[in-house]
Amino acid sequence: MSHTITVRLRKRLGGEQRRALRLLACNPFGLTEAIMHLHGFTRPMLATLVRAGLATVQSETGKAIAVGRIRITDAGRRWLEEVAKSELRGPNRFKNFWQE
Asked: Which of 23, 53, 80, 86 is least buried, going by the fewest C-beta atoms within 10 A?
């Protein structure tokens, strides 16, 4: 049995949250909570993404254990696209060029 929970929260996201969304966007089937934890993401930070509606968590019950799988939502993909567009238009678009 699986359950999907999504709650909306309006809040600006930080760099770690953007990194988590980018990682989820690269994995069409999502990632388990354990894998996200190995990448350095905490439960409260991941919960922020879920509450913002940018990710969902599904509980998948196997023979012996239950595993939480995190997936990016369509809203999360749109948010990443908007961030990428604003980074190209923003004042820091030449930042890496001048630092080299």
From this structure: 86
pTM score = 0.71
Q: What are the helix (H) ranges across 8-94?
A: 15-25, 33-38, 43-51, 74-89
Task: Show Cβ contacts of residue 57 under 8 Å, excluding neighbours closer than 6 positions.
Answer: 4, 5, 33, 46, 50, 68, 69, 70
pLDDT tens-digit readout, 44-98: 999 999 999 999 999 888 777 778 899 999 999 999 998 888 766 655 555 555 4
Percent of the chain that is helix, strand, coil (3-state, to 5): 45, 20, 35
Q: How many structural domains compose the chain?
A: 1
Domain that holds residue 26: 15-86
